[in-house]
Amino acid sequence: MRNHDTIAAIATGTTNAGISIIRISGADAIAIADKIFVSKKNQKKLSDVKSHTLHYGTIMDGESMLDEALISVMKAPNTYTTEDVVEINCHGGIIVTKKILELVLINGARIAEPGEFTKRAFLNGRIDLSQAEAVIDLIHATNEQAVKNSVRQLNGNLCKKIKEIRDSVLRDTAFIEAALDDPEHISLDGFTDTLKEHTEKNLKEISILLKNAEDGKIIKEGIRTVILGKPNAGKSTLMNVLVGEERAIVTDIPGTTRDTLEELIQLKGIVLRIIDTAGIRHTQDTVEKIGVERAKTEAEGADFVIYVADASRELDENDEAVISMIQEKKAVVLLNKSDLSMKITKEELENKTGKQVFVISAKEETGMDAFAEAVEAMFYSGLIDKKEEVFITNLRHKEALLEAKISLEKVLESLAFDMPEDFYSIDLMNAYQMLGEIIGEAVDEDLVDTIFKEFCMGK
Amino acid sequence: MDNKLYYYESYDVAIIGAGHAGCEAALACARLGLNTIMFTVSMDSIALMPCNPNIGGTSKGHLVREIDALGGEMGKNIDRTYIQSKMLNVSKGPAVHSLRAQADKQSYSQSMRKIVENQPNLCVKQGEICEILVENSCVTGVRTYSNAVYPCKAAIICTGTYLKARCIYGDVSHYTGPNGLPAANHLTDCLKKLGIEIYRFKTGTPARIDKRSIDFSKMEEQFGDEKVVPFSFETDRNSLNKEQVSCWLTYTNETTHDIIRSNIDRSPLYSGAIEGTGPRYCPSIEDKVMKFPDKERHQVFIEPEGNYTNEMYISGMSSSLPEDVQYQMYRSVPGLENAKIVRNAYAIEYDCINPMQLKPSLEFKTISGLFSAGQMNGSSGYEEAAAQGIMAGINAARKLKGQEPIVLDRSQAYIGVLIDDLVTKETHEPYRMMTSRAEYRLLLRQDNADLRLTKIGYEVGLISEERYNHLIKKERLIFEETERLKNKMVGGNAKVQEFLSAHESTPLKTAVSMADLLMRPELNYELLAEIDPEREKLPDEVTEQVEIELKYSGYIERQQRQVEQFKKTESRRIPADLDYDEVPSLRIEARQKLKKIRPENIGQASRISGVSPADISVLLVYLKQN
What we know:
heterodimer, A: alpha/beta, Gyrase A, domain 2, Four Helix Bundle (Hemerythrin (Met), subunit A), Rossmann fold, 3 domains, seven-stranded mixed beta sheet, six-stranded mixed beta sheet, 17% strand, B: alpha+beta, Arc Repressor Mutant, subunit A, DNA polymerase, domain 1, nine-stranded antiparallel beta sheet, eight-stranded mixed beta sheet, 21 helices, 19% strand, globular
């Protein structure tokens, strides 16, 4: 139950607007801002300034400057949420803005849920029902989809990884607790070494997850996605639709895309690194041939393949070549050019490829939603995955992971100070709870159940 | 039927059952000035200990101290009648130190009987209550088996394991309560008629063996502590000096396990003859062997039942196997080769209620004036029972006086955790207290139960003026000494540096406070006396608190911050008549649970399994809108 802590979020859109605003609300808002803000002229503290004032200075991440910023300080109760509110206006683009938000979170705020500022304004009596209606609808909608969402926010591998760490933490805690409850049966002698080893291992795993969660890394990597199809099937048009602007050269002459082009796109929040390839075609043209070879190589190394078939032409040997290439791959088929008269049916292509087929028109931009939803579903169900590495894309998850990390570090600290064993379980359970928040599982009776399952207790 | 009824004298409160819950409930009511009657199926079973011969233990010891801090009797009674005492977990942190005492069972029971029999305002009566009379959803009286009606304004059900009790071993089964006492066979039907949901639970007890038939030379002797700590904050330590008896430790072995495995089909637990749900914490030996096949041996504690008898309690080997198998099984254990069984081990099945039908005050949600406490509420253990007993007693009294109930929350007491768990979380087995269930356990220590609860006990009216004044003085001394240590600066002079190096502690570079030094793991309050000449002699109970609160201050402060968050959600009340069907967008599971449990506040609602944070948001928004 978290209706009283300090929350933060990017208040402006996530597009590359000139200025972004990070809003912080709650009792610790000003103290948190003070930790990361250095004013320009003098060393004034935001906690000392008057309400409803603007301050110019820099946002510091330790010793390094992140951005210049204007900060507005508004003290309770005359604010939107009726709590202390701080707004950081910065202009460093989306990556810097996200960094600043992370800094705010590390310093004690938590990420706001959708509509949470308005929810607070409403709960605190600042605005009336009619003003809050949209947000209330949002809260209701969120809840109606809660079950669906909790599963869908994570991909399969990540979920598995978190569960492994979580299980390990729970088993260690259960052992300590079993021994505390039944000291005459179960001894903790020598367990501190085991616990240290397990905790260090878990911390290492969490650190890797956190490192991969760095925005830069996600942006650089994404899911390696390759678009295949015979020349002039509409691959470049599709890519342009996905990217949202004209990037690839598009002509009606087959073979105008001579090299692979890379673009990062976000599809329903999932980052795809899309590689557009020259059309697969048996060719003698040297330049184009290199392109075709590269396309084949790229396809082999891809996490995910989008095969674009041209509905206006019969399937030919080039299509056969693509179909055989995608047999072993995670792939979907887009039957493009539905705006022209169709020579191939969806069913026909489904039978031939054994993959999901979506009828679209890249040119008219129709049929794209169903395709995007299918990609999203495949990702969250773990059908598409980054090879080996798993990573966190959601800031809320990242924040929980960070808290789990801090808790496990506290366990190591307690071990180093040689604290009695019962102190370890406090932070272990905290880590367990935080990891649970990522995969949408509450603590409930897990500990007691594990104690009884794993250890023979009692008189 | 009606014409046979006759009306007897009226009481304010009727307590049904005189076990550990019943005694505390009755004493609380009577001491708070209510005209109270307590019924028991047998005058010889008052405060009976039908299972293990000890009081306290991990987390249960905490409960006893809390009962005492509120003005209850259990702590004082075990202090009077203990025959061995031990503080468990002393090598661990102060939060998990737990006191456990072996009781002389007969003395324990007799001593409590003397207390209740001599308590003004309290009448103890032998008789089985068959019916609770209810009019317009309010309690109006109770009826005995002999058709006497005792009009009363409130009743507290403390029937323990007696309701439709059945004792079973092998294919032998008796419809009796524990120790062969008569079961109470009629009340369940009345409760069902009142619309109360009934569970059937099961528990068990091991055999009692004649001390003369045991070879103790094959066992390890287990002694009590030299310095005995009393359970009650009021007990004079000097009154505890007595010769303590020993317990003995031995182990089962592969032969024992083979005997059990080859006869498992004769265990009613496994043949299906027992339907009730048993506690995971007190598994029968057949459960231990079947569920943990890799374990080569299980511990067996041999505990005396008292100084008046040769019976020894074989802890760790409760069973429902047939008598002949019991003989083989016990006799395979080293030291028990020639064991003579005085009483067989048995399993017992009994009726209890689904405690989610209760408010946190332990009053039934649907029947005004009807309370329930103890094993009847699906808990296990003497201490859990007594803890509920005193709370039900206090709240019944407050109800009749027109006062708000006392509800301890999870940050105040183990009692709060116990009752909140019972009334909020689904329990499918007898509930046992455990330290891992208390999320704020660093604050809920057995050493500070008085600081947490005695003021409440005083306000309720169960704590004397004298005891209250003592507490206020203790609080003041703790505060003053803590402040002194925080402000007293220690410089790096030769004497201090020498002291530090003598205790393998890092020398000082700059001046620090005495409190900072106390926080070093290798130092403690007693040692620091050497470099703290201005220190005044303070009582141990004061210095103990000063030391713990300073030494673990980092951890304690963190828990206090968590408690602040917790308190905020606990203070958001939910109207008792809220129609959950009117709340839009609650998930079906959450709606069903909320309708069933009807939590009193947002905090309690958030602890119900199946109610998500998003459901809580929806609920908060709805409450605000309306």
